[in-house]
Amino acid sequence: MVFQADRNFILQRRLLSGKYVYIKMREIRYNFRFGRRSDGYGRRGAVAAYLTEELRMSRPKAVVGVLVTILVTGSLCALSQRPGSSLHIGNMNLFDLCDYLSSNVLMPLGGLLIVIFTGWVFSPEKLRNELTNNLTVNLWCYPAIRLLIRFVVPVVITLLFLTQIGIL
Question: What is the pLDDT of residue 57?
């Protein structure tokens, strides 16, 4: 690291290619300060970009639509927590239903689909390059990892999913 006398000292980092990257501390503080807020903006922006590209909506309409959807669903979930609320589906209020669906159904299904794609559709050469940083790291256990991804992990995720939703 290279330090200067003033408060805006520079961090020096050597990359794998041999080049150096200089980062001012003022930029790092700015990124840390606004990082939490920009993460949420990025997710809304991704959904708005999808609506713009696939449904041919204008960008302002897509952003307003996403924000209204978030506002309505968030408000309904918050209001369902009140005592005496009539926002129930079955024996769960709306917030508990959204929580149950996201943590017990959508996350395991997403993980299962990712593992199936990685094990059976993604090419073995690309997987090896991703795991070994383009062959710069010797990964001697790659065959075992590929075997786990293809055969063991999907079965384990499926068993956990079936147990969580109450079938097993």
Answer: 93
